Amino acid sequence: MSKPKGNIAAEDAQLIEKTVERQSVFQGRVFEVELKKVELYDGTLTGREIVKHNGGATICALDSQNNVYMVRQFRSPFEQVLLELPAGKLEVDEDPKACAIRELKEETGMCAGKVESLGYTLSSPGYCSEKIYMFLATDLKDGEGNPDDGEFLQVIKMPLSEAIERIEKGEITDSKTVTALLKTARMVGV
Question: What is the DSSP letter of 128?
Answer without folding.
Answer: B
